[in-house]
Amino acid sequence: MQKRMFLNCGKVAAAALFIAGCKTDPAPDSGFLAHPEKMTAQRGRAPFDRAWVKPGFNKNFYNGLIISQVNTGYLLENTGWAAANPASKKLEQSAMDLALFTRETFIKAFRADPRHRFPIVSRPGPGVAVLDLAIVELVPSHAVIGALGLAAPFARAPAVAVASKLAGSKTCVAIEGRLRDSQTGEVLVMFADREEPPFRIISAKAVTWYGDAEDSIEMWAKQMVELANTPQNHEVKDAQNFTLKPW
Question: Would you list the domain boundaries of the chain?
Fold first, then answer.
């Protein structure tokens, strides 16, 4: 009996580790970024699908950061959530909660940085940059969709058969962002990334519409802080897509 339980656990762990190595394809451009064609494939210095840095950009010129309100409009309209759930107050509130969670997570990450490379400020000025973020895609698990009474749209995120069989669905979240000068509005950096939230044997996070995406959002925030603190030749690693922790 113990041997059979050990073998079953081994199968689950092996399958989960297989999923951990699976990467999603880059998400389509949402329209949030004005010139997404400038971005090129990454996974080198920056652990994003695509990014662009203005030639000659010197981050040492900046010593303060404003994180603006996070945009979720493209998420609701482009991916079909609004059409599938017309006039859904629950969906609208969830999108607002997701935007607030994302902004607070990024603010918390920069404030927790022991080097305080980019202190969070509230007003534009010389040496202040603005980070604009948009969550442009979110496909929660089937269990979450059902529990919240939402209708799933025909999402543009591709399904992954192995993940669907083991987890009951394929979850993913995509973000787009830009860093701009607070005085001139000139765009200095753009990036886009799509991630699968870490696979969980038991998920205690998936109690909200965006619960599955929280880990990815926290990871992006930490990666942005690391990019701010490190030289051009430093490679910021991507995260693994597997965790045994249910929280």
Answer: 2-243
